[in-house]
């Protein structure tokens, strides 16, 4: 980290002056709360005085409480912080209430499917459909606290069903329809659902996939179900299900109402990856998500009325929940269902041009795939874009450069890092802060981010554990089926009492920016030189012949000769040979990382095992290679490509 790091984007003063974060700072001054000269002063105030900051977020955005809270944050402790005690509100009310950008004829939702299907819903029509489905769910016995689970595509019908459930005070939980039956049961059975919302199939990569057999099997294993609501996404329909269209028709004209619930009343249940056991059900509350998503989308991505907001996601990833939060800001939410690479990697960029997106969100692996494919965009077709967001993995330097070459110079590259745990990012962009090559610009407002060394001391310009030293409203209300909170405390608070340990390696630079290095439970520690796996992948996957890779350190980490190996597994492009590629990779790793981080062996595999949300399975593979029985190391049902484990199991066989 040096002070002369390359700046790849600078804020435009005119745009900053018109931004919502500038309006927020003015509002704070007018109300005598804080007079801050720049983003850094605002951030410091936000983390030093969390009650004042989050109370100001509620006031600035006009959060509608039915019962006024007695306080904002009586005690800023972790775990156990109580936000806005006594206050009642409803997420769906904030997503659907009339206001700027949300007039009846304003566009609320644009839907695009990979086969060319396109639909629009106005805010008026969205409100009408939510009211009807709300009445329909109530007629099926759904009420406050009941669980509505959904095996559904990223489509308007899904959004309608979610908002209808939320309006009743019911608890939502969704999986993408490409989840297998076992993976869906592992998640949904925990919450004992009242109603299942399910599609008949989905479209992906030029094919229509029938999921009716999966839905039938899922229903058999959810004994608490009272009803199934079917979405005829491919036209086939679901047998023995109440059609969503039927609910819309039978209850058309029903009044739109919202059940006031406590600030921490469960809104939805998200899930951990479940690779090493039953997925943990992560519960978020109505109020925390309203405040966090208003803050993140409006103040950090500057999304608001008249803007079109898109993020490529499925309903099984937290970014779907983040994306639909665009409605809170009065934006138009653009939903896409299908493959991001069908018929080509240029398809989503064409969507960005056609739909005049202001914010285009994707993943770092997608950007890397565009780079590897040699894709070239026409910047002149993307004149509406202000921000391109990237999450899911650290965005490489080469990824930054590819975006810089292919986007208009005015577009901010917004690398964004956080997690399912808080359903947001806590390091990322700000409209009034530059972007440095390979870095995330700043900690988010209200996110007291620090890097800790092993003793729990904060460090700068050194790799450390990513921690949060102050509570945030969107931290989990609870884990499902964790009545005494012991599992939640074990997950985040065992290492540094009173401090949230997130599980990532981070460097906080002396400029205030940050670099994420990958998961701290899969560190490469060779001869005392500690490095995150993201740094390794950046070098290896920059090679044109490497499609994907996985690095595993089987040693104890103290020295290269402690009985283990550093292994690099690579997926090679068609026609590439390891004999040609390996010398170049060894030279690059030696030069760009260190001689200690040159693998002992390179091994070619057909695929890298990934979770259902696309994360590389570093820790489970490391356990398998260390001799742990595969069935104890990983749940295959939690993997997108379970057969990819087989070569690793075979490699470990002699040790078992």
UniProtKB/TrEMBL annotation:
InterPro entries: Acac_CoA_synth (IPR005914), ACAS_N (IPR032387), AMP-bd_C (IPR025110), AMP-bd_C_sf (IPR045851), AMP-binding_CS (IPR020845), AMP-dep_synth/lig_dom (IPR000873), ANL_N_sf (IPR042099). Residues 39-95 form the Acetyl-coenzyme A synthetase N-terminal domain. One of its GO terms (molecular function) is ATP binding. Residues 104-471 form the AMP-dependent synthetase/ligase domain. PROSITE patterns: AMP_BINDING (PS00455). Residues 539-615 form the AMP-binding enzyme C-terminal domain. GO terms for biological process: lipid metabolic process. Transmembrane segments: none annotated. Its EC number is 6.2.1.16. NCBIfam families: ac_ac_CoA_syn (TIGR01217), PRK03584.1 (NF002937). Belongs to the ATP-dependent AMP-binding enzyme family. This is Acetoacetate--CoA ligase. It comes from Jiangella asiatica. The lineage of its organism: Bacteria, Bacillati, Actinomycetota, Actinomycetes, Jiangellales.
């Amino acid at each position: 980290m040096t002070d002369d790091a390359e700046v790849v984007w600078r804020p435009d003063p005119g745009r900053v002056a018109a931004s919502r974060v500038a309006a927020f700072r003015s509002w704070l001054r007018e109300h005598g709360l804080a007079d801050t000269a720049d983003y850094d002063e605002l951030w410091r105030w936000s983390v030093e005085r969390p009650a004042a900051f989050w109370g100001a977020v509620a006031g600035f955005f006009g959060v509608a409480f039915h019962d006024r809270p007695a306080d904002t944050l009586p005690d800023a402790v972790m775990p156990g912080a109580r936000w806005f005690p006594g206050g009642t509100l409803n997420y769906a009310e904030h997503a659907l209430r009339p206001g700027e950008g949300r007039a009846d004829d304003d566009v609320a939702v644009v839907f695009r499917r990979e086969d060319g299907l396109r639909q629009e819903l106005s805010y008026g029509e969205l409100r009408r459909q939510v009211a009807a489905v709300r009445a329909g769910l109530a007629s099926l016995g759904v009420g406050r606290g009941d669980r509505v689970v959904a095996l559904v595509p990223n489509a308007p019908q899904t959004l309608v069903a979610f908002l209808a459930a939320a309006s009743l005070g019911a608890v939502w939980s969704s999986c993408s329809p490409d989840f297998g039956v076992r993976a869906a049961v592992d998640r949904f059975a925990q919450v004992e659902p009242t109603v299942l919302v399910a599609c008949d199939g989905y479209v992906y990569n030029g094919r229509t996939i029938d999921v009716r057999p999966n839905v039938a099997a899922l229903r058999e294993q959810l004994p608490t179900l009272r009803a199934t609501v079917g979405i005829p996404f491919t036209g086939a329909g679901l047998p023995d299900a109440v059609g969503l269209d039927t609910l819309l028709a039978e209850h058309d004209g029903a009044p739109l109402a919202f059940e006031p619930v406590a600030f921490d009343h469960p809104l939805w249940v998200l899930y951990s990856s479940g690779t090493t056991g039953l997925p943990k059900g992560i519960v978020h509350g109505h109020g925390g998500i309203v405040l966090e998503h208003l803050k993140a989308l409006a103040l950090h991505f500057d999304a608001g009325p008249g803007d079109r907001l898109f993020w490529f996601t499925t309903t099984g990833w937290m970014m779907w929940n983040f994306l639909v939060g665009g409605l809170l800001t009065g934006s138009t939410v653009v939903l896409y269902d299908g493959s991001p690479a069908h018929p080509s990697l240029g398809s989503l960029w064409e969507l960005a041009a056609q739909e005049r997106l202001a914010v285009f969100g994707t993943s770092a692996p997608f950007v890397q795939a565009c780079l590897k494919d040699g894709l070239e965009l026409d910047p002149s077709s993307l004149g509406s874009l202000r921000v391109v967001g990237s999450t899911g993995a650290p965005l490489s330097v080469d990824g930054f450069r590819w975006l810089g070459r292919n986007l208009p110079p005015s577009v901010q590259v917004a690398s964004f890092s956080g997690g399912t745990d808080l359903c947001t990012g806590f390091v990322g962009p700000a409209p009034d802060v530059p972007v440095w090559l390979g870095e995330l610009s700043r900690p988010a407002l209200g996110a007291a981010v620090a890097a800790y060394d092993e003793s729990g001391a904060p460090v700068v310009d050194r790799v450390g554990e990513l921690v949060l030293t102050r509570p945030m409203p969107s931290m989990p209300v609870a884990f499902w089926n964790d009545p005494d909170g012991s599992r939640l405390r074990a997950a985040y608070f065992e290492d540094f009492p009173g401090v949230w340990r997130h599980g990532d390696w981070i460097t906080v630079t002396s400029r205030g920016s940050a670099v994420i290095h990958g998961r701290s439970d899969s560190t490469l520690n060779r001869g005392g030189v500690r490095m995150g796996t993201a740094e390794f992948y950046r070098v290896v996957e920059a090679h044109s012949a490497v499609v994907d890779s996985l690095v595993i350190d089987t040693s104890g980490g103290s020295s290269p000769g402690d009985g283990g190996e550093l292994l690099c597994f690579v997926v090679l492009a068609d026609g590439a040979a390891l004999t040609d590629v390996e010398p170049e990779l060894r030279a690059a790793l030696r030069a760009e990382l260190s001689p200690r981080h040159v693998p002992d062996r390179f091994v070619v595999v057909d695929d890298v095992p990934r979770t259902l949300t696309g994360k590389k399975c570093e820790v489970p593979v490391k356990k398998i290679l260390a001799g742990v029985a595969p069935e104890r190391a990983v749940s295959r049902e939690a993997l997108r490509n379970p057969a990819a484990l087989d070569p690793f199991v075979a490699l470990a066989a002699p040790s078992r």
